[in-house]
Design brief:
The complex is a heterodimer.
Chain A: H1 4-9, H2 13-24, H3 28-37, E1 45-51, H4 57-70, E2 75-81, E3 90-92, E4 107-113, H5 125-135, E5 139-143, E6 160-165, H6 172-176, E7 186-189, H7 197-208, E8 219-222, H8 231-248, H9 250-278, H10 281-292, H11 298-310
Parallel strand pairs in A: 1-5, 1-6, 2-4, 2-5, 6-7, 7-8
Chain B: E1 10-14, H1 23-34, E2 38-41, H2 48-58, E3 62-67, H3 72-85, E4 92-97, H4 104-110, E5 112-116, H5 122-132
Helix pairs in contact in B: 1-5, 2-3
Classes of the chains: A alpha/beta, B alpha/beta.
């Protein structure tokens, strides 16, 4: 291994940038770096920020980072934007909303493309967040792809999950549905200077009052991120949530769950890769043809593939 | 075309200085996206420091500067200096916009490997990037 790990541990930002690329590209060096650096992670508080496209996630992420800077903390940001399903290229535009932080030595912003991952994040997001954490940032903010109703992966990556809502984007039935709203630890009503913000807050409150007794109810915070309003309350709400995680024993529980999920996901990916490598193209093509012609059902075909490499 | 998870060429498209017209930059960003690159676009009115810092943090392979104001000989050397002072000395540099022919040599001396002027076929830009960067 070269001296990159040493430079990384000395706080050199270019070394951080390089390590992230190797980890994101899943190169053999990337694995080595992660192995060396992972024991240094686990100190940062990780915050996931999710919500619909255009809800103000990037602006809110930048404004929350600025609030942490005012409080004397350092911040790493990982912002994910979607990859093209056709070219696999991407436009990563989240930095545009974070210009005020551009030259702050206590902030590091990294854009990632989703690279085919479902769920609003990127395939290597957990590893990249661990690397950011190991670098020593007090907070790591993870901004998802613009999410719809079902992109819940971020809750397994971050300790605190913030769901960004906007006034005028649906009635209270939207808030009653299952899915993304269930993973939020904090509900932000962003663009609170727009009409309907208070109605949305009361709709969300009414919804939360339906939760079973004894369960922790998410806090609702109004922000106007573009004007920097409400960020102090949001940072306080995150601190309260952290406090709750620690005092309730949930922190250890959540870390354990996240680790389990992560290990199983990687194991699944390794097996899939083995199946792909261990299956001659002709065999795969023959099975696929039979399924396409309705001679074989897809489950039987998949079991035949899996049996060939796991037997 | 590569697998979705494969390593991609990362390109920073940046607009230094005060001109606010970024249609050209967006067209180039879009063409590179469609060519399979991951393109970081930072918007208009970037200082040389901001551009260099973004190039460092994003660990890009390529930096493309777009300028229409005529201040390229003023601003581009400062971008190059800021990159160097951060140790970012191995990126492929190209530029585009309203850049007179007589400035070509000065920009080449600064390390710009190509200058794309109005009328350029965007596919030529994509081809240029893939010819110069291995991933």
């Amino acid at each position: 291994m070269d001296d990159l790990v040493e430079r990384f541990l000395n706080g050199e930002r270019r070394a951080l940038a390089r390590v992230i690329s190797r980890v994101e590209n899943e190169t053999p060096e990337g694995r080595e770096y992660l192995r060396a650096l992972f024991p240094h992670s686990g100190k940062a508080h990780t915050i996931g920020i999710t919500g619909g496209a255009g809800s103000g996630k990037s602006t809110l992420t930048g404004a929350l980072a600025a609030e942490y800077r005012r409080r004397g903390h350092t911040v790493g940001i990982v912002a994910v934007d979607p990859s093209s399903p056709f070219s696999h290229g991407a436009i990563l535009g989240d930095r545009i909303r974070m210009q005020d932080l551009a030259l702050d030595p206590g902030v590091y912003v990294r854009s990632m493309a989703s690279r085919g991952a479902l769920g609003g994040l990127a395939p290597t997001i957990d590893d990249v967040v661990s690397v950011m954490d190991a670098f020593g940032f007090d907070y790591v903010l993870i901004e998802t792809v613009g999410a719809g109703q079902d992109e819940v992966e971020v809750a397994g990556t971050a300790l605190t999950t913030i769901l960004v809502n906007n006034p005028g984007t649906g009635d209270d039935i939207q808030a009653l549905k299952a899915g993304i709203i269930e993973i939020a630890d904090i509900l932000v009503v962003n663009k609170a200077d727009h009409p309907g913000a208070d109605i949305l807050v009361s709709q969300l409150q009414a919804l939360l009052s339906l939760a079973p007794a004894g369960s922790r109810r998410p806090v609702i915070v109004k922000t106007t991120a573009i004007k920097g309003e409400g960020l102090d309350k949001l940072a306080d709400a995150v601190a309260e949530h952290r406090q709750y995680l620690e005092s309730s024993g949930q922190l250890a529980e959540q870390r354990s769950q996240d680790a389990r999920h992560q290990v199983l996901a990687i194991a699944r990916a390794i097996l899939l890769e083995r199946i792909r490598r261990g299956t001659p193209e002709e065999q795969l093509a023959a099975l696929v043809d039979q399924v396409a012609n309705r001679q074989l059902d897809p489950h039987t075909a998949a079991e035949a593939l899996a049996a060939a490499v796991t037997a | 075309m590569t697998a979705p998870t494969a390593a991609k060429i990362r390109v920073l498209i940046a607009k230094p200085g005060l001109d606010g017209h970024d249609r050209g930059a967006k067209v180039v960003a879009r063409a590179l996206r469609d060519g399979g690159c991951e393109v970081i676009y930072t918007g208009i009115r970037q200082t040389p420091q901001m551009i260099a810092e973004a190039a460092l943090q994003e660990d890009v392979d390529v930096v493309g500067l777009s300028i229409l104001s005529g201040a390229h000989l003023e601003l581009f050397p400062r971008v190059v200096d800021e990159l160097k002072s951060r140790g970012v000395d191995d990126v492929l540099l190209f530029c585009g916009g309203i850049i007179p022919e007589e400035d070509t040599r000065a920009l080449e001396a600064l390390g710009f490997k190509a200058i794309f002027r109005p009328g350029t076929n965007t596919q030529d830009i994509v081809k240029f990037v893939y010819e110069h960067v291995q991933k």
